[in-house]
What we know:
Pfam families: Gly-zipper_Omp, OmpA
Shape: globular
Mean pLDDT: 82
Helix content: 55-70%
CATH class: Alpha Beta
InterPro entries: Bact_OuterMem_StrucFunc, Gly-zipper, OMP_bac, OmpA-like, OmpA-like_sf
Subcellular location: Cell outer membrane
Structural class: alpha+beta
CATH superfamily: OmpA-like domain
Radius of gyration: 17 Å
Region (Disordered): 178-201
Protein name: OmpA family protein
Strand order of the largest sheet: 1-2-5-3-4
Order of helices and strands: HHHHHEEHHEHEHEH
Amino acid sequence: MKTLRIKVAALGIAIATTGLLNTGCNSFTKTQKGAAIGAGAGGVVGAFIGKAAGNTALGAVIGGAVGGTAGALIGRKMDKQAAEIQQTVPGATVVRQGEGIIVKFDSGILFDVDKTGLKPAAKSNLENLAASLSKNPETNILIVGHTDDTGTDQHNMDLSIRRAEAVKSYIVAGGVSGSRMTTQGRGESEPIGDNTTADGRAQNRRVEIAIVANDQMKAQAKQGQ
């Protein structure tokens, strides 16, 4: 619980920092706000915020932001892809964040307890996600596995890595280039729920996928394309 409280507090600081960047921008669209946030909190600062908040996927999105007009153009593309994923991948939680997208799957949808074999419903969801990723090739993808705190630290780290790799392998089989994807396992180190409760542990067993602009999309956005 102490670790969870610390991370919640850190996330609050991150949100507060973002809020300061939004001061005076209440009339902005979501995409414009994302551009402003990217301009103020991109790069190293954005990565630090994500790390402090205990969320590797969030850090990848904020840390990869370019901001400004280019960020707004990237944001519009991400708006469209996020809407598509929301419609076609019913088992996922889709969050538009800054200049990227975070797609979260509860592990109960993907895997049986303590297993790495994908369930049939998971395969259907990942096939649909792969289709969207294939149609939007100018992005990089980070796949992050997470567990609850049941079991040893090493077991949980290994399990989270193998689950992230299982998701990557299936998306690659769906036609997405493996060179676009990176995997990480975070074990039990980034909880979003209370590990002392069954519901909290279920929340913590998840896979998060961060979708961010690649260098080509960023270059095109800077050119106003």
